[in-house]
Amino acid sequence: MNTLETDVTVVGSGPAGSTMAxxxxxxxxxxxxxxxxxxxxxTLRAHITNQRTMEILRDFGIEQxxxxxxxxxxxxxxxxxxxxxxxxxxxxxxxxxxxxxxxAEYTMFSTTSMCDLPQTYMEPLLVSNALKRGADxxxxxxxxxxxxxxxxxxxxxxxxxxxxxxxxRAKYLVGADGGNSLVAEQAGLSFEGAMGIVGSTNxxxxxxxxxxxxxxxxxxxxxxxxxSDVGGVGMGFLRMVRPWNKWLIVxxxxxxxxxxxxxxxxxxxxxxxxxxxxxxxPKITGTSLWTVNNYWETxxxxxxxxxxxxxxxxxxxxxxxxxxxxxxxxxxxxxKLALVLKGTAAPALLDSYNAxxxxxxxxxxxxxxxxxxxxxxxxxxxxxxxxxxxxATTESIAQLSDASAKAHERREAFRNELDAKSYEYNAHGVxxxxxxxxxxxxxxxxxxxxxxxxxxxxxxxxSPGAKLPHAWLEDKTNLLSTLDLVGQEEFTLLTGIExxxxxxxxxxxxxxxxxxxxxxxxxxxxxxxxxYGDWQQLREVREVGCILVRPDGYVAWRSTGIASRPDEAxxxxxxxxxxxx
Length: 581
Ligand code: FDA
Prior knowledge:
Bound molecules: dihydroflavine-adenine dinucleotide
Helix content: 25-40%
Largest sheet: 8 strands, mixed
Strand order of the largest sheet: 7-6-15-16-17-14-18-21
CATH topology of the largest domain: FAD/NAD(P)-binding domain
Number of domains: 4
Structural class: alpha/beta
Radius of gyration: 25 Å
CATH class of the largest domain: Alpha Beta
CATH architecture of the largest domain: 3-Layer(bba) Sandwich
Strand content: 15-25%
CATH superfamily of the largest domain: FAD/NAD(P)-binding domain
Number of helices: 17
């Protein structure tokens, strides 16, 4: 049997697998990733791309490429609730940071913006950049069981074109093989929750719907009409893929009765019903089935096997967290694998992947499931429910426009429930506030004083375990972010105008131990100036203090003052973070 040697084998070229390949290749690690498909994902799935993901793309230098393919945040400006696209409009939410009161914070707390980038664009972007940086990809290749060897992992793969088996030998295996992960199953990772709670269909089609959409630009038109409450997320969704002629319908089905036959006339019927255009002649370009899951792994790794993405968190698309979190998992793990493979860190550093990302997996599955449940009160305010028949549904929605005290109360209740959907549509904290507790973070005793809702609002802090806050700086000619000073597989020490001793200590350590560590002073007359005073507001340490940031942009350690021997202090901190004995 032919054998291929690499450092890391990644099963999957979806958002998780291709981010892992891109990151490892960028860090100079030999990586082979395989996919059973001929090319990237053939189905339209993820699209909402949050700021944390865009910050990661920025670190890899491909943010602008992504934005060029994406629909901008301003085009995601409404979530429209209606009885059909051409029918009665029930109300709108300004989602994804588009409400003026929220836009300020979305703009203030990141270098970049949310955007709508369909998975069919994101994956080729990640894969092609991974290849440009030296990753080895094998499409049409099926993963068979792996075998642990004395020096790593041997994956049995099968070339689907020739049927020929071959062996891929690596030091580590990353299972990024999605919601039916064989890698997670074979590794025997423990899990909670359940798969396949309800069923849903995807119908992709082309039709010019601009006359019904451009005045209320949106990526999601939520259709509440008789029949649309069965299965799925409890409503029919018309999702804009490309403005305003490429669309995806997400429509549930009765799980107990089994999936419908996705014939063109069935799909056309649903398209006409949700658009409210009985004579529309859409071009159907694809159909697929998926299930709503409520499932997460409680351990993400075993030995030399690590799982990322949907392999370890499987949940509905509410909040748009799946692909985002999958990419963020890989970003968390890749630098650790790279530093261990290069001998800079001890293998124990890899334990922090599980400690940091397993709680995130549980948290996002729970959030996505609650966001489905929170549609219940909206339906209730409209007078809808499981026992309400089709005629009563239509009548109840019509009565919402009555000039009566009862209808007035229902209108108010409906509006309140729409506003409560901020936990799905403007959950900036869910997207940006992930906090890590692990051996790769050294906590301090400074209490977190924020009383803001951590799901709704991003709470910037330099507290160890949090993402480094963004602040605009200037390097005499260019505006750049604190986030631009970190990443690219390096640790970064940030200090103020009085922190020269810290910078000297960091430079000496970096040279002596060949550590990937850079140090910068931010302040008046320094290379980086805080001209707006934003960093001063956010840094939470004095000018003489310092903040050590990991390659994934998370704070590893901070010091409010200066140690008498900064070289010794920093050496001890780095030794602990890198799990060096
Ligand atoms: P993914 O399933 O994408 O990839 C798995 C990879 O593994 C594929 O390359 C496959 O070929 C490979 N593979 C599997 N088994 C294999 C085997 N045995 N051998 C070889 N290769 C194998 N998320 C989000 O962030 N924002 C959003 O707006 C949405 N919206 C959305 C809408 C709808 C309708 C759905 C169904 C889903 C979303 N999502 C989403 C979720 C998102 O699509 C999902 O979380 C990601 O695709 C997960 O990425 P992964 O890379 O983990 O798995």
